[in-house]
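Suppose a classmate hands you a notebook page containing two proteins, each written out with its sequence and a corresponding row of C-alpha cells. How would you begin to make sense of it? This section walks through that situation. The first entry is reproduced here exactly as it would appear on such a page.
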Amino acid sequence: MRSFIIILVLSALAACHGAAVLPDESNMFSSFIREQMLDGWTVEHNEEDAVQNRVTMNKGEARDDLIFLYESPCIVPALPNDIVTCEVVYHGEPNVSIRRFSVSYFWPPPAHIDVSGFLSNVGRVKLTSHIGERLQAVIGIYGVINEDNN
C-alpha cells in the first residue's frame, strides 16, 4: 500500500511538471490554433507565413474561382401583430452559375430563410420575420462564369 501511494504521488508530480513547463512560443500558438479548429482542418507552416506573422489553414483543396455576383440590402420595418417578408431575386447571364448565397442579418434573426437557384443562373432568397418583428439583412450571391471553349 505504501508503494502504491508513493507511485501515485510521483505520478502526480510528473503530471504537474509537464503542465508547468511551457512550450516555446511557436508550438504554443500552433497547439492553440489546433484546439480552436474544426475537425479536418490543418495548419500549414511556411516561410512566407512566418515573415508576415500569419497562419494558413487548409481543408483539402480550396476553390478561389467564386466571384461576387450580386448584393442587396433587405430592410423591412415591423408591422404590429403581423409578419413581413423580403424577397431578393437575381437573374444572371446564361453562362453564370450560382454557387453560394450569403445572408447577413441583424437582430432579430429572420424566422425563415428560403433559398433557391443553386447551380443555376437565377437565384432567389426570401426572408420571413417573426410576428411583429422587423427584417434587416444583406443578401450576397457568389458564383462562377462558365466560359465557352468552342
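The notebook's second entry, a different protein, reads as follows.
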Amino acid sequence: MSAAPRNPSLSDVEFIDPTPMPDSIPKVDEIGATSAPLQSAAFFIGAYCKEYNEDFMLCKNENNDPAHCLKEGRKVTRCAIDLLRKLREHCDKEFEAHWTCLDLNNQEYHRCRAPERKFNACVMSALKLEKYIPDSPANKPQIHLKEKPLYY
C-alpha cells in the first residue's frame, strides 16, 4: 500500500523575488517578527523611529510611485530592527511575556495590562523611551498608566 501523494505546502515553496532591487536601493533585512511582537513594541517603535517614519510619510505624500520612497522605507525597517534587538537585549523576559499575552488574547491590549506595565517600565528604564498613545484625551492619564481602567 503506497502513501497518498503529498501536496506541497507553503513551507515547501522557496520564494525568490523575480525582480531584484536596483543597486541604488540600499539592502535591508526583513524584520522577521509576527504581529504580536510588533504590536507589543509598536508604540516604542513609533517613538524610537519617529524621524525616519516622518521622512517616509513626507516622501509618500510627494509621489504616488511606490519606488519613490524605498530608501526612506528601508531606513524605517532598519530602525525597527535595531529597536527590536535592543528590546531583546535589555527587556527580553518582559517583552516576551507581553507579546505572548497579546498572541494568546487575540491581540487585545486590555487583557495584557499587567505584563505591559512590566514591559513598559523596563523599556523606560533601560532605553529611556516613553510610551505615548496618540489622540488620547489630554486631561486624562494614558490608558496603560491607569491602575484599574474601565472597559466598555
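A careful reader of the second entry would note: Residues 113 and 148 are 10 Å apart (CA to CA).
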